[in-house]
Amino acid sequence: MAKITLDNLAHSYLKNPSSEDDYALKELNHDWVDGEAYALLGSSGCGKSTLLNIISGLLEPSQGRILFDGKDVTHAPTAERNIAQVFQFPVVYDTMTVRDNLAFPLRNRGRDETYVAERVQEIASMIGMEDMLNRKARGLGADQKQKISLGRGMVRKDVNALLFDEPLTVIDPHMKWELRTQLKKLHHDFGHTMIYVTHDQTEALTFADKVVVMYDGRVVQIGTPEELFERPEHTFVGYFIGSPGMNVIPARVEGNRAYIDGTELALGQGYGALDGKVEIGVRPEFARLSQTEGLPVKVRRVEDVGRHKIIRAEFFGHDINIIAGEDERVSADMNRVTFDAGHVNVYANDWLVKGAA
Amino acid sequence: MEKTVNQKAWFLVLPVLILVAFSAVIPLMTVVNYSVQDTFGNNQFFWAGLEWFQDMLSSDRMWEALWRQLMFSGIILAIEIPLGIFVALNMPKGGFWSSFCLVLMSLPLLIPWNVVGTIWQIFGRVDIGLLGHTLDRLGISYNYTQDTLAAWFTIIVMDVWHWTSLVALLAFAGLKSIPDAYYQAAKIDQASRWKVFRYIELPKMMGVLMIAILLRFMDSFMIYTEPFVVTGGGPGNATTLLSIDLVKMALGQFDLGPAAAFSLMYFLVILLISWVFYTVMVNLDKKGM
């Protein structure tokens, strides 16, 4: 296990990157704390897998350094880094038995057979495949194959980090929960540093201590699930996390007042002069429909999703979503909306602006 | 659900039946017809029963040709399959050079068989051929018209030159279908180059290799044109393979009866070996090699 440091790291798939747009992964400095479980969250093509492959050594970065416990491994081959990685699609050695598959990484490192047998047994019971050890891996289902891949990743005790590249994509929904729970338990029991790449926010939020949100080759926020929810540092985080995502509305901000189309809205904090594109962001959870108070809104549609209702509405020509409790009454004459002032964030050029109370 | 019965549907199969009849059944039955009769010309035939088959089975000439044939197919398979895999493994995986290699390697496959024979016939000549002359100058005795070893060497090298590309192209297609993640996982598992080949590449290539082996076996077992053009079956009968012998017998000596019996047995041998090979490979495949 090790602390992994990214120092000025950036990567471009082009030979001679000229502008920032050429970089698939933009300059990044970050410490992955030893023993923490991280989720790397972002939409497809945002650079998550690039970052993961750089850490595992499958890809050499165009600039910057990677350090494992302070030791520079930027140019070290994968084998020397002693990491484990599980891929999106199951990789199993078809012609081997399940047992040989699990034993493969240990045998390649010359561990003695009694130790190998013992470890294989432990891992097999963890992934629930003890009774299949002597079967050929060929012909097993995708979820069983993926469990073998997970098992092969976990069979070495001394790995520096465990990397997962969207490993549950091919797994059935009910198995997803089970495997994710097992991974969490594993993390709890052995304290490996884990980095889990996903584009599924539920997966990220349930798995990780810290979620790293990436957007367009850049890390936009690193934080606990609560932080991401309450104080999204970037409009993308607000939009990407939450269901539905944060409402982002163009506004003019002066002091502790925001003006939307000339209509005044109170903010919880005061702000200095802001440049560029200014927006306010408020989560649907912190908006409330009302008959009497607040700003005018035109309700379009109410969706009952079980635990709560989602109200789709028009607000000064912008679409907004409002969440109402399951038992809350929504009637036709409710055409005003109020926002919880403490949870209205202000963004300038998509980045969160900190106000003063 | 009620099904309508309409016997007229049989007419739909008729074109295929006619086609197969003319392309396969009728010619084959003609051969069967010849194989049980004897003729002295003038289109007069006499019933001979299984005599020709017995004759052929006890003829040294046929057994010798069969052994030569088996040896030829065995040797070229033993060279072309590993060599084809080796070439495929070392080909560029993408970009301009990959396409370049593919085109370059397909070239021998596009050359007509008798042209291949002629190329090697001239290539190997001691007086004007590049290969023959060079070997001669190096002091190596090489004359495929007189020396059995030289003749075999020439037809085997010729076949390897002509057909290794096919194996390489098929193996390359098999290799290209392996996702990158397999190689990455192997790196992470610290697998050696040999283990990557043994546990990732070879199993993924097995399907196409089976086709390659089967195709090359059948083709080489029926080979006629190229060795005929180069050596004409000589020196003596040293390179008289089955089909060369068959043509000699049927068209050279006009022994229609024996030749027909011979060709039926020839056909059965190919069928039998292909069937055994296929069955064994499929079983191995089921067991996971």
Automatic annotation (TrEMBL), chain A:
UniProt key word Nucleotide-binding: yes
Start and end residues of each ABC transporter domain: 4-241
Molecular function, one GO term: ATP hydrolysis activity
GO cellular component, one term: ATP-binding cassette (ABC) transporter complex, substrate-binding subunit-containing
Keywords: ATP-binding, Cell membrane, Membrane, Nucleotide-binding, Transport
Similarity-based family: Belongs to the ABC transporter superfamily.
Protein name: ABC transporter ATP-binding protein
Organism placement in taxonomy: Bacteria, Pseudomonadati, Pseudomonadota, Alphaproteobacteria, Rhodobacterales
From TrEMBL, chain B:
One record GO biological process: transmembrane transport
The UniProt record lists the keyword Nucleotide-binding: no
Topology relative to the membrane: Multi-pass membrane protein
InterPro entries: MetI-like, MetI-like_sf, Sugar_ABC_transporter
TM regions (residue ranges): 12-36, 66-89, 101-123, 149-175, 196-218, 264-284
Compartmental location: Cell membrane
Domain ABC transmembrane type-1: residue ranges: 66-277
GO CC terms: plasma membrane
Keyword vocabulary terms for this entry: Membrane, Transmembrane, Transmembrane helix, Transport
One family name in Pfam for this protein: BPD_transp_1
Domain of life where this protein originates: Bacteria
Principal subcellular localisation of the protein: membrane
UniProt similarity note: Belongs to the binding-protein-dependent transport system permease family.
Annotated protein name in UniProt: Sugar ABC transporter permease
Source organism (scientific name): Sagittula salina
